[in-house]
Amino acid sequence: MLLLKYLLTIIGFGLLVGAAALIVQDIYQILKHRRMREQEPPLGESEGSPAAPGRPPSTHWREAVRLAAAAILPLLIGQSITIVPSGQCGVLVSQFSGVRPWTLYPGVHWVVPLVERVVLFDARDRVFTTMLSDDPKKKGEGLRVQTREGLMVGLAITVRYKLDPSKLPHIFADLPQPVEDEIVPPVVASVFREVTPNFMVREMFAAKREQVRQAAAGRIAARLGTDGIVVKEVMLRDLQLPPEYAKGLEGLLLKEQENERLSVELEVKLKEVRGAELEAEAAKVREVKHAEGRAAVTVLEAKAQADAMQHTLPLKEKQIQQSRLEAEARKEATVKNAEAMAQAKVIDSKAELEKRKMMSDGDDYHIRRVASADAERMKLEAQVLKENPLLIQKIIAEKLSDKVQIMMVPNDGKFFFANDVLKGMTQAPATSH
C-alpha cells in the first residue's frame, strides 16, 4: 500500500510537471514570436530585406489543463492513503468537526484529502530524567527539593512512561503539546516537592529511600494517569546532599565504620577465645579418654593377672584383688586418692603410736626388771657383806688402785684349794734334796 501511495504521488506530480512543461513551451514560443516581430523591417525597404514573420504559434493550454486535471486524481488518491508506522499511533483531525474520538493504530487508513489529517504520536516507552546539578553538558534538568530540616537536596530521577493509545484524542485536544516537555516534568517535580518534606535527609539517604520512591511513584502515576499517561516505573537513582551535611555525614559514617570494625575485631577475639575454650575442652576430653584408656588397660591387665593367678595361693588372690582396687582407685578422681592416702597416714600414725606404746611398755618392764634385779643383787650383797665383813676391805682396796691385786684368804684356810697347792710346792723341793 505504501508503494501504491508513492506510485500515485509520482504519477500525479509527473502529470503536473508535464502540464507545466507544455505551458513553459508555449510561453517560450510566444516570446520568441514577439522578438521576431520586433525585428521585422518597416514598410518601403528594399526587396532584399527578410520576409515578415507569419501568424503567431499555436498554444497547448487545453492539453496542459487536461494534464493538470488528470494529475489531481492520483494526487488525491495518494493523499487519502495514510500509513501509521509501527510503534506510533495517530489522531484523525477534521477541518470541520475537529478531533475524531478514536485512535488510528499502526497500519493503513483512509482519510478525506484536504479535509482530514493525521497527527502521529510515539506510542513507545519514553524516559524523563533529571540530573543532580544543572550542568549544560549533561542531558537532563536538575531537580532540587526541600526536606523536613529545610535542607535542599538534589535528586537524580528517571521516570519511564508511555502515552495511552486509547486516550490520544484527549491528549491532543486538551493537553499542551509536546506532553513530554509541558506535562511530565512539572508533575514529577511537584510530586517530589510534596513528598520529600515529610522525610529527613538521613531517612531519604538510607532507611526510607524506597518509601520515598514508592510514595512519589504512586502520586505521579495517579496524576498522569488521568491525562492518559501511563507511568511504568519511577527510579530514584541518586541523592545529592548539601556540602555541610555531607561532610558531617561522612564523619558519622567513618565513626560507624570504625564501630563496625571494632565490633568485627571483638567478634574475632570472642571466636578466638571460644576456639581456645573448645581446644581446652578437647584436650581435657582427650586426657580423660587417655586416662580411661589407661585405666581400662590397667583393669584388663589386672583381669589378665587375676585369670593367670586364679589357681594360686590365697595371697595371690588378695594381691589380684588389691590390684583391681588400685586400678579402680586410679580411675577415680584425685580427691578419693587423697582421702585414701589420708586414711593410710592415719593408719600408719596409729600403728606408730601403738608401736611407741609397746616400746614404752617394754622399756618400763625392762626398767622394772632391772631395778628388781639390782634390788635383789644389793640385798644379796648386803647379806654376803653381813656374813663376810672382810669383803668390805677388799672392795675398798680395789677402789684405791687398779694396779694392786689383793687376794683374801680365810683365816683357817679351810676349803681353799690354794693351801693344798702351796703345801704341795713346799714339799716338792724338800724331797728333791
How is this structure best described in words?
By secondary structure, the chain is an alpha+beta fold. Helix content is 62%, strand content 15%. Strands 6, 7, 8 and 9 form a 4-stranded mixed β-sheet that branches. Strands 3-2-5 form a 3-stranded antiparallel β-sheet, covered by helices on one side. A two-stranded antiparallel ribbon has the order 1-4. Helix 6 crosses helix 7.
Q: Residue ranges: pLDDT <50 for 5 or more in a row?
A: 44-52
Characterize the largest beta sheet: strand count, sense, and whether it forms a barrel. Answer: 4 strands, mixed
Mean pLDDT: 76
- Gross morphology: rod-shaped
Rg over C-alpha atoms, rounded to the nearest angstrom: 74 Å
Which structural category fits the helices and strands? Answer: alpha+beta
- The sequence of SSEs as H and E is HHEEEEEEEEHHHHHEHHHHH
What share of the residues lie within helices?
Answer: 55-70%
How far apart are the termini?
206 Å
Strand tally: 9
Helical run tally: 12
Quaternary:
single chain
Strand content: 15-25%
Give a short synopsis of this structure.
This protein is of the alpha+beta class and 433 residues long. It has helices spanning 2-38, 61-80, 168-174, 179-182, 184-195, 201-207, 209-225, 243-308, 314-331, 334-387, 390-400, 417-432, and strands at residues 81-84, 88-94, 98-104, 107-110, 116-122, 126-131, 141-146, 152-163, 229-240.
